[in-house]
Every structure is written in C-alpha cells, then in structure tokens.
What we know:
This protein is mainly alpha-helical. Helices cover 64% and strands 4% of the residues. It has helices spanning 2-13, 24-94, 99-124, 129-141, 146-149, 153-197, 208-211, 226-232, 234-237, 248-264, 282-291, 304-310, 320-367, 430-449, and strands spanning 384-391, 405-411, 417-421. It has a three-stranded antiparallel β-sheet. A hairpin with a 5-residue loop joins strand 2 and strand 3. Helix 2 (24-94) runs antiparallel to helix 13, helix 3 packs across helix 12 and helix 6 runs antiparallel to helix 10. It is elongated, with a radius of gyration of 36 Å. It starts with a helix and ends with a helix. The relative contact order is 0.17.
Amino acid sequence: MALLLLSLLGLLLAWEGGQALVPPSELKQMSAAGSKYIDTEVENAINGVKQMKTLMDKTSKEHQAILHTLEETKRKKEEAVQLAREKEQELAAKQEVCNETMLALWEECKPCLKRTCMRFYSRTCRSGSGLVGRQLEEFLNHSSPFSIWVNGERIDSLLERDQRQERQFEDLEERFGLVEDGVDDIFQDSTQVYGRMYPLFRAPFGGFREAFRPPVQRVRFFPRSERVSRELHPFFQHPYHGFHHLFQPLFEMTQRMLEDAHGGWEHSLGGFAPESRNFSDDRMVCREIRRNSAGCLRMRDECEKCREILSVDCWQTDPAQSQLREQLEDALRLAERFTRRYDDLLRAFQAEMLNTTNLLDQLNQQFGWVSRLANLTQGTDGFLQVTTVLSKAPNLEDPSAPADTQVTVQLFDSEPLSLTVPGDISWDDPRFMEIVAEQALRHYKQNTIE
C-alpha cells in the first residue's frame, strides 16, 4: 500500500509530457477558489431572477387593471347590442304597416342582389362559388325586406365579432397565465438554491422569498383550457425556448384580424342612408360572405330596387317607427364603438406583453440557469471541483512558449469537463481559477439553455 501511495505522489509531482502539476492539497485550494467565483455568479443570477419576478409582479398588477377595463367595455357593448336587438324586434312587429310595398320591392331586389354578390365573389375570391351561391339562395329565400330596411347585417356582424373577441381573449389569458406561472416556477426554484446557500436567511428569519415576493392577487375570468395547456406544455419542459414566442405569433395573427375587422366598420354610421361599399380589403369581404351570407346585404346599394326599400317611408302612418329607428341606430353606433374599443384594448395588451416577454427572455437567458440548481445537493467542498491539472505538450511551432495547462473540473452535477488555460498564466496565479470557473460556467449555461 505504501508503495502505491508513493507511486501516485510521484505521478502528481511530475512535470514532463502532460503530467500532473499540483498535489491533491493544492487541488482542494484551487477548488475552493473556483467555488468562490461560482458562488458570486449564483448570487448574481438569483438577484437577476428577482428582477424577473419584480417585473412579472408589476405586469400582473397592470394586467388586473386591463382585465377590469375589458370587462367593463364588454358589459357596455353587450348592453348596447341587447338594446339594438330589442329595438329591431319592436320594428319587426310594426313592419306590416308597409309590408305590401316592401315585399314587392324585395322580390325585384333579391335577383339583383344575388347576381351582384356572386359576380363579386367569383371575380375576387379564390374558391367555393358554388357553395356560397347555394347558401345565398337559401338565405335570401328565408329573409325579408326588413333585413335591408333596418341594416340587419350590422347586428349579425357585431355578434360574430363578439365571438371572435371572446376566443381571442381566452387565448390571451391562457398565454399570460403560462408566462406568469413560468416566471413563478423559476423564482421558486431560485429561492431553494438561495436557501441552501444561506440557510440562516430562511423564513421566519427575514426570508428571501417573502422579501422579494409582493402579494399579487390574481383574477382570471376563464379557467385554464386543457387544449391550450396541452399545446404549450413543452414550454414547461424547455423554458429557455422563451416567453416571447408565446405572444409573437398570436400578435401577428391578431393584427391581421383587426385590420380585416376595421374594414368591416367602414360603412356609414350616420342614419339609414344607403352605405357606400368599401372593398379595399377584398380578403375580408370574401371571408365575411363565406361565413355569413348576410354579408351580401352590404351590396344593396348596387341594386335600384334594394335602394328603394331603404327609402320606403313607413312612419307617416306610424310616427313611432321613426323614433324606434333612431334608437336602433344609436344603439348600433354605441355597440360598434365599444367593439372597436375592446379590440384596441386587446391589441394594447398584446403589445405590452410582447415588450414584457422580450425583457423576461433577456433576463432569463442571463440568469434563469440558476433555477436548474434547485434539486442539486451542494457538497461541503463547494460547487466546483478540480480533479486534475496537467501540463500539455509544448507547442511545436513555438517551443520556447510556455505550454498550456489542461484542467479537468466538475461543476454542479455536470459531467467532468476539460478546459485549457494559456501557458503564460501559472496555476498559482489568482486569475487562473477565475478563468477556469468562468469557462466552466459558460459551458454549463450553454448546455442548460440548449
């Protein structure tokens, strides 16, 4: 046994040809110096995660204000739509006053309206003319001139837009919750690392968690949907894919959708005069006709008999109809204004989340790696262990230059890693272990983020 120990000591003290440079006692001191550098970087990373948490808490508070504004806007929009529907029903009950006149005009309006709509669709839209034609035929056969007389498609458009807004809001809420939970997970894991490094600072001794976790009461109007959670579940397994990617595709899709919707509001809002068609966005018109044949009613101004329906004066025999139509128009105008306001709020919320998640990603890329240490058991010798320090073979191109030093270390729970330090920096130079620890940590971060 003594002979074996002497042989090992001789190997450690040899200098030639890639042999070990330092004895085991020096390796322990070098490990302690490297671990001190790593400790400092871990503390910096924990402080960086605190910045992430603070930013997310601030965003959550702002999010609550946005939710309440959205809810209030939605309530006013729904009240206006309900009032419009009530006024429409009241007018429908009185339509028999002019029924005979309008029915005669309607029979002449329908063929023109169908031809105009199908001509536009066939010329502008890509496919589906046959199906759209059959749907339109059925729609017109089951409709009455009253649909044109009261601009009935405006209520249909409002109800359809409300459904799309509802789906968009639920998706936004789901994605916001994933970001919020993701940041919270990183923070909670980081507090565990801090607690193991500084056990005396655990609660109730002025704990890190309580000091940097201001209470934020979360309010969610919709439960977490299984569909979206399942689609985005890989985010939790690979958080370094980024928070920003949760909102970027959704924002781009919503921008296109809102631009399309904006085109739909460009009709005249003043009175019941014939509105001018606006086909500046043909894609929106094609999509509207495919979804809802009532979209063809927007083309009524192209047909003389359809225009005459708009000008039928029924309130000479029933003056109350004039007041009802004014009330209906006021309610529609109000509902459309609140619908646009709701769109603006959703768009502002998404834009804010794009900015916030971009900042979170920057902080996460820089500091989030520390959360991966939550389940790591730190040994008494520190996070970094130096196992060998070898002199590499001399540089054949420049034999006079000092040979580089090869150092094998183990950082945290990673596999042993071989690093190279320039030969002009001696192993007993304080910079030596700083270089080794910095290289090891950089390699660990790269592997963690990947």
